């Protein structure tokens, strides 16, 4: 019987407009464009080994060829080659793959821990001060500084960067999740659930988590763009992947020395970072507009 | 209120007046990438310090840009005793410090004794030889007594560590000497130092004792020189193109072709290169301890391609550990140099030595994967070592690259954690280079290859103690032969010093000494 009751309660909290949220999303042209671009980039990154025209690590004597549309450019290397004579398009595909993988894995792990802690803090009031003070401490550490410290301790590589991103996501996400959960905890259905004598675990998962999850996911989609940017900055500083692995921030850093004479080497990966972050932000924003019940009038 | 017309006229007049004003003021602006930690000649080995010290102070002996011919400096002449133990320097009597005080042999004796004073802990004290006593006989005679002959002494005395400084200033400034002030006898005087920003020096108007390698032996033709620190090669290029600076020897190689063809600029490389870039092997590590592996790497890396693709042909491919026109280079060594790029030979060498290709394409032998670890510093290196990594992969060697920021990198390079390392160094002569890197007493740094060989030590000692040029060359030649035969390094390239300057200045000759391209600065003068 309790199951049926819980189901009814959850249903009544769902606004009726929600069923057509994707229709409203489709009306937002910028959001559609951003989602299409993101989908293309994700697809290209996932398919990198099959669609890359060259081995991204194979060097050649054809160094610093400009892109095909510039003078001296060739169709053989559409985006030109880097100072080692490696095909920039192939490196870009592999680099995007790694950058997205870093962003996704840290957002998923960091988001999971962060939202769990945030919900826990809202659910059990006595844990709240402890969890929030710890997250305040973590909040005070900038991700870049954390990355530097972790690289100093663990050595250059992708793991310390992912770890830094996870640690910097946890407190942000915990704060947001706690805020959302506090609002839900004040709702009557929670009291109703309590009055019915539901166990904590069920209250937590079915009443709290289910109602909070969409708002948390929206926050994470917005946060994703920031994480990509921080990851790229860290590897631009030489803290991320080890050469010859391709990573967008590192590729931009490598091109910096040749900026006056072969700007495409730095500009192409930088523009791709810009596109990914912009698309992720626009898409996240649009999702929030259509999904967040608090924004609906 | 200016009308529009008059303000236009004004700016036209200003534009016309500016170049002339620039010449009258005679301030020359030079740019470089990094600053020194100090300008105390005995407390730093930085090239950035050498650049300034040669201009604000003088040495007893001067050296020509061929890095072989010696010329009188503060010493008019010198005598060497039969046993090679006593050098007597006859000094000029017309030399004054920047503060106007007369320079005497006592000042020289003070400077040299401070150089070798154990309390000063100079990292370059060994360059003075095994000194018995350095004393001023009278105002113009200095006696330099050695415990053992030191054939390199006169060459070492041309370097920036051997400049003459003023005792009173040293005593007055204490630890701030070379930081807050200085007092030397150079063509320029200490102006102001803002660390990591700029260093200014002003002309010493009384200077007339410049070395004879310059047409103008003093005073300098410009009133003021400002050295700016611009830590980005691209920004240096832009600053030079827009006229914010007048000359630099740190323009990136990629920009040189453009400067050569651009009106208003002159590019002048030094005649000889005395700065060599190389990869060294730790000879006692399981992978690179095998001679065949080291030889294979030398065959597998195309130095000509490196020089053309990464340096646009502006540096020289290196197969030897010092440039072959260096003092005491031995032609015999050419027999053991690996000069040809031959991938098949590299593979054959590895096969013969039992390094067979595994399933992942990487070679292994007795369970050891051929995966040497290389330590390097950020800056020019990442591009070079990535090229090396890609080339070595073609013969089945998987090089693991670790690039460090110089702040931690130098410490890392003094450990035994790695199999290979990168390094670049300036040198005067074969003896200078070989003593630095191959004396067993110099492990783990600067002898980072762990080359410990009694015969080498004996030859180095014999070469240093040699009484004749021939004897010195013979001994250092033997060392050169042995370390090349054993393939201690993978030499990469010899870099000449290249000055790029505006044509508002007379074309200069770049001097290779310790990377200090302008040497005494007496060649810096306005074109008119």
From TrEMBL, chain A:
InterPro entries, per the entry: BP-dependent_transpt_permease, MetI-like, MetI-like_sf, OppC_N
GO cellular component assignments: plasma membrane
PROSITE patterns membership: ABC_TM1
Protein topology in the membrane: Multi-pass membrane protein
Domain of life: Bacteria
Keywords, alphabetical: Cell membrane, Membrane, Transmembrane, Transmembrane helix, Transport
Record-annotated ABC transmembrane type-1 domain positions: 96-284
Keyword S-adenosyl-L-methionine: no
Regions that span the bilayer: 30-52, 98-124, 144-168, 216-238, 258-284
Subcellular location: Cell membrane
Pfam families given in the database record: BPD_transp_1 (PF00528), OppC_N (PF12911)
GO biological process: transmembrane transport
Cited Gene3D superfamilies: MetI-like
Primary site of residence: membrane
Stated family: Belongs to the binding-protein-dependent transport system permease family.
PANTHER family tied to this protein: OLIGOPEPTIDE TRANSPORT SYSTEM PERMEASE PROTEIN APPC, PEPTIDE ABC TRANSPORTER PERMEASE PROTEIN
Name used for this protein in its record: Peptide/nickel transport system permease protein/glutathione transport system permease protein
Automatic annotation (TrEMBL), chain B:
Cellular compartment(s): Periplasm
Domain Solute-binding protein family residues, every copy: 70-436
GO biological process, one term: peptide transport
Cellular component, GO annotation: ATP-binding cassette (ABC) transporter complex; outer membrane-bounded periplasmic space
Keywords recorded for this protein, A-Z: Signal, Transport
SUPFAM superfamilies (UniProt xref): Periplasmic binding protein-like II
One example GO MF annotation: peptide transmembrane transporter activity
Signal peptide positions on this chain: 1-25
Pfam families: SBP_bac_5 (PF00496)
Family: Belongs to the bacterial solute-binding protein 5 family.
Name of the molecule in the record: Peptide/nickel transport system substrate-binding protein
Organism: Gemmobacter megaterium
């Amino acid at each position: 019987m309790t199951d049926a009751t819980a189901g009814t309660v959850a249903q009544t909290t769902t606004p009726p407009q929600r069923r057509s949220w994707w229709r409203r999303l489709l009306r937002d042209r910028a959001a559609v464009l951003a989602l299409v671009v993101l989908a293309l980039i994700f697809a290209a990154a996932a398919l990198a080994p099959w669609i890359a025209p060259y081995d991204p690590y194979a060097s050649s004597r054809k160094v610093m060829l400009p892109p095909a549309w510039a003078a001296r450019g060739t169709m053989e290397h559409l985006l030109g080659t880097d100072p080692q004579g490696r095909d920039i398009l192939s490196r870009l595909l592999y680099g995007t793959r790694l950058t997205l993988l870093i962003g996704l894995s840290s957002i998923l792990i960091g988001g999971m821990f962060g939202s769990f802690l945030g919900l826990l803090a809202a659910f059990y009031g006595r844990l709240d001060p402890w969890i929030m003070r710890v997250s305040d401490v973590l909040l005070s550490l900038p991700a870049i500084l954390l990355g530097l410290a972790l690289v100093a301790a663990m050595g250059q590589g992708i793991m310390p960067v992912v770890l830094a991103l996870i640690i910097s996501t946890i407190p942000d996400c915990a704060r947001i999740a706690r805020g959302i959960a506090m609002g839900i905890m004040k709702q009557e259905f929670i009291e109703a659930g309590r009055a019915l004598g539901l166990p904590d675990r069920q209250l937590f998962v079915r009443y709290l988590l289910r109602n909070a999850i969409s708002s948390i996911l929206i926050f994470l989609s917005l946060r994703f763009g920031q994480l990509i940017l921080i990851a790229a900055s860290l590897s631009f500083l030489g803290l991320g992947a080890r050469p010859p692995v391709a990573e967008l921030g590192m590729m931009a850093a490598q091109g910096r020395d040749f900026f006056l004479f072969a700007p495409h080497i730095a500009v192409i990966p930088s523009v791709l970072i810009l596109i990914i972050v912009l698309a992720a932000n626009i898409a996240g924003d649009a999702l929030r507009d259509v999904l967040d019940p608090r924004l609906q009038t | 209120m200016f009308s529009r017309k008059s303000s236009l006229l004004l700016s036209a007049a200003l534009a016309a007046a500016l170049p002339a004003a620039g010449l009258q003021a005679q301030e020359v602006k030079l740019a470089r990438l990094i600053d020194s930690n100090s300008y105390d000649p005995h407390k730093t080995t930085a090239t950035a310090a050498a650049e300034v010290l040669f201009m604000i102070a003088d040495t007893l002996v001067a050296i020509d840009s061929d890095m072989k011919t010696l010329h009188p400096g503060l010493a008019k002449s010198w005598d060497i005793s039969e046993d090679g133990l006593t050098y007597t320097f006859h000094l000029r009597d017309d030399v004054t410090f920047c503060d106007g005080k007369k320079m005497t042999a006592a000042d020289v004796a003070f400077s040299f004794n401070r150089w070798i004073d154990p309390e000063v802990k100079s990292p370059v004290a060994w360059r003075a030889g095994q000194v018995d006593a350095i004393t001023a006989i009278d105002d113009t005679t200095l006696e330099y007594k050695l415990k053992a002959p030191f054939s390199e002494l006169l060459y070492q005395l041309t370097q920036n560590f051997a400049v003459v400084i003023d005792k009173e200033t040293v005593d007055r400034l204490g630890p701030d000497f070379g930081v807050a002030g200085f007092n030397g006898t150079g063509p320029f005087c200490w102006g102001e130092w803002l660390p990591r920003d700029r260093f200014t020096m002003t002309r010493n108007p009384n200077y007339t004792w410049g070395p004879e390698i310059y047409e103008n032996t003093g005073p300098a033709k410009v009133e003021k020189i400002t050295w700016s620190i611009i830590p980005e090669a691209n920004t240096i290029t832009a600053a030079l193109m827009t006229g914010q600076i007048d000359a630099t020897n740190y323009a990136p190689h990629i920009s040189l072709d453009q400067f050569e063809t651009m009106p208003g600029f002159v590019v002048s490389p030094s005649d000889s290169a005395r700065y060599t870039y190389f990869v060294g092997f730790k000879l006692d590590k399981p992978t690179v301890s095998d001679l065949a592996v080291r030889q294979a790497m030398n065959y597998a890396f195309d130095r000509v391609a490196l020089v053309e693709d990464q340096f646009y042909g502006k540096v020289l491919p290196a197969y030897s550990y010092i440039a072959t026109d260096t003092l005491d280079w031995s032609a015999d060594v050419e027999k053991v140099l690996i000069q040809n790029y031959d991938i098949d030979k590299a593979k054959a060498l590895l096969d013969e030595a039992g390094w067979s290709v595994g399933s992942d394409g990487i070679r292994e032998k007795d369970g050891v994967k051929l995966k040497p670890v290389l330590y390097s510093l950020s800056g020019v290196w990442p591009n070079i070592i990535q090229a090396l990594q890609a080339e070595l992969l073609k013969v089945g060697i998987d090089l693991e690259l670790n690039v460090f920021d110089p702040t931690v990198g130098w410490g890392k390079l003094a450990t035994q954690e790695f199999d290979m390392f990168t390094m670049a160094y300036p040198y005067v002569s074969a003896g200078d280079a070989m003593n630095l890197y191959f004396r067993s007493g110099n492990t783990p740094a600067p002898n980072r290859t762990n080359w410990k060989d009694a015969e080498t030590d004996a030859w180095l000692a014999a070469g240093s103690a040699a009484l004749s040029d021939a004897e010195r060359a013979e001994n250092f030649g033997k060392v050169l032969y042995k370390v090349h035969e054993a393939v201690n390094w993978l030499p990469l390239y010899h870099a000449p010093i290249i000055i790029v300057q505006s044509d508002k200045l007379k074309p200069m000759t770049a001097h290779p000494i310790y990377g200090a391209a302008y040497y005494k600065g007496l060649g810096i003068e306005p074109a008119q």
